[in-house]
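Listing S7. Sequence submitted for prediction.
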Amino acid sequence: MKPFEIPLTAQAQTFSVGGNSTYNLRVTWCEPAACWILDIFDGDNVAMVEGIPLVTGVDLLSQYEYLGIGGALVVQTDSDPASVPTYTSLGSTGHLYYVVSP
């Protein structure tokens, strides 16, 4: 199944995504860790999970399967599959994808 790219820009942002359920996502830059951080809230803006670093090579939701979100969130960069999106590359060469479960 083709992944869906979640459109991001290199700035802190909050937005909603959804299909059967609506989720509010917040992406912020964490200066001490030098990485982007993802927080997920339900449709009522109640925090489900906070502080997920946008790292490559893993399904960001795998350890939160109990939340019932389904699918996978995967981060990739254009230049080096092992590098994380930088402060300025998020949305241009650093991408966040949602992959629907089969």
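Caption to Listing S7: primary sequence and predicted structure tokens for the chain studied. The two ends are 7 Å apart (CA to CA). The CA atoms of residues 43 and 72 lie 19 Å apart.
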